[in-house]
Every structure is written in structure tokens, then in C-alpha cells.
Design the sequence.
DNA sequence: TTAAATTAAGCACTTAAATTCCTGAATATG
DNA sequence: CATATTCAGGAATTTAAGTGCTTAATTTAA
């Protein structure tokens, strides 16, 4: 998973939800998020569970339950959310790299590295607070 | 398909194979490409079929058969190969864009557009000849 | 204390995309 | 002409993302 740049629905849900929860005084529950983001409740619940496990959110059951943020939004980078959901970003290498690759200058590796690095840099520069 | 940036194995095969075929005097067959690129013969055949159909390559069956390039490599952009294999590049929009999206500045759309545009620009600037 | 609301967690299903497999048709060579 | 080689194209398989459902645990509030 997570080769080169690929923003899944799950990552979109993760980022949007974290901003919404960070802006709210009260716990926000999965149904509310589902209505705001126009995504399935199930998928949202799954992503939120992940973010709870990683320690960015806390969750409360029962009526008035939902999710709250428990880490300073200025300290949560988009990159953190991305990796919490998709796992570490890695560059998909050309299998025939170096001596094995029949091309003198293998465009594939250079391109993959360039694009991945740009993506990572950008995601490491932005925090949840920047979008509140 | 082809949302945001995603370099599949198929695209890698397409670019590598086109360069190899462009550099060769004689037809190159799927088995030779398979050995050079360390990818399955079947997958390579599929990708090559596509590039024949689109008109960049010609194919010959039987012994001594294989693929040859029939368009000037200086006129084949990486972007052309990408779209021949994956279809048009499009930006995956946030479903709640504009009034619907609960975020004031939807990072998702901005980011998706920025990264996609960079990718397309780069792929439109490079030709097969640049890698021969 | 009971009922309703809500997250947690696991599993099976669906769907779409990527990849592999299979069979048939074309062709060069002896 | 016979045979081995090779591409073509559709079928089948695999893989991954997302959906739907079910049960359990927890908590509020009547």
C-alpha cells in the first residue's frame, strides 16, 4: 500500500474529520461526520477508530458520545494522519534498478522519488490547525 | 481511474518498453522485454497490445516477430504513454466541495490539483527520445 | 434499573482495478 | 506443408477499497 502518491477516500475522511472535531467544543459522532462529509458511516467509523488508536482522538460511547481531539492541532501534521491511515510512504522502486535496469537513466526511479518527496514535504509542512 | 498521481506497474512497463524498443534495430518480443524488465510476460503483452492499438508500435507474429516503434520517439511524450495505458488524468474532487464541504479552505481539492498539475506538466515535458 | 444511543471490533459481501491465464490466429523457416 | 514461435483478445483470478451487518461494551437519561 501507499506507493507513490495516492489519496484514498480514507485519507480524505481522516483529514476532514480531524479538522471538524478540532473545531468543535463537544464530541462529534460518526453520524454527524457522515452527514457533513457525505461518506458512509461505516467507513468513517473505521477511520476514526484508527485515529483513536494512534492517540489523536478520544472516544465516548452512549448518548452525547462521539470523538474529541486530545492533541494540540498545531502539532498534528497531515503527514501524521496520512501514515496513521495508510502506513509509511515508500517509493516504489523500479525492479530493474541500477545494473539490472536496461535504461541508462531510469526515469521511473527519478520521477517516483521526485514526486514522492514533494508530497511528503508538503504534508509535513501543514498541520490541522492550518485548516481550522 | 487514474486519480491523483499513481504510477502503476503498467505505466512503468509502458515507458521502459517503449525506450527499449525505440533503441533496438530489430523487433523486440514480449519474452525479451520480460527478461529485461523482470515482469510477467503476460502483463507486458497486455501493455504492448495497448500501445500497438494506439499507434505508437507495430507488431509482427511468428519467429523473429515482436514489436517495433513507428512514431518518432522525439514526438512521443510520457504523458501520451500514461494516458494510452491509464486513460485521461483527472482530479478526484472532494465530494463536499464548495458550499457542501464543511471546511472553509478544503485542503483536499487544493492539494489534489497542485500535485496533479505538477505531474502532468512533467510528463508533458519529457519524450521517449530523452531516455534513449 | 431499564431503555436508548453510541463506539468497538470482527467478518462477509461487493465492486473495481490490476494481473495472469488460456486459446486461437498469424507467420517465418526448414 | 509442418512446426515452432509469437501476438491478440477475452476469460479468469487476485487484490484492495469500501460497504453492510452483527454483536458486545459502555454510558446517558428517564
Sequence:
Amino acid at each position: 500500500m501507499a506507493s507513490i502518491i495516492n489519496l484514498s477516500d480514507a485519507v480524505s475522511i481522516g483529514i476532514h474529520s480531524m479538522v471538524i472535531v478540532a473545531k468543535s467544543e463537544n464530541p462529534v459522532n460518526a453520524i454527524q461526520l457522515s452527514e457533513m462529509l457525505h461518506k458512509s458511516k461505516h467507513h468513517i467509523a473505521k477511520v476514526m477508530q484508527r485515529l483513536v488508536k494512534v492517540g489523536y482522538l478520544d472516544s465516548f460511547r452512549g448518548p452525547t458520545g462521539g470523538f474529541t481531539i486530545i492533541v494540540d492541532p498545531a502539532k498534528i501534521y497531515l503527514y501524521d494522519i496520512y501514515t496513521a491511515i495508510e502506513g509509511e510512504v515508500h517509493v516504489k522502486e523500479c525492479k530493474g534498478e541500477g545494473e539490472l535496469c536496461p535504461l541508462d537513466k531510469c526515469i521511473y526511479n527519478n520521477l517516483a522519488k521526485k514526486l514522492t518527496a514533494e508530497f511528503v514535504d508538503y504534508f509535513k509542512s501543514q498541520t490541522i490547525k492550518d485548516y481550522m
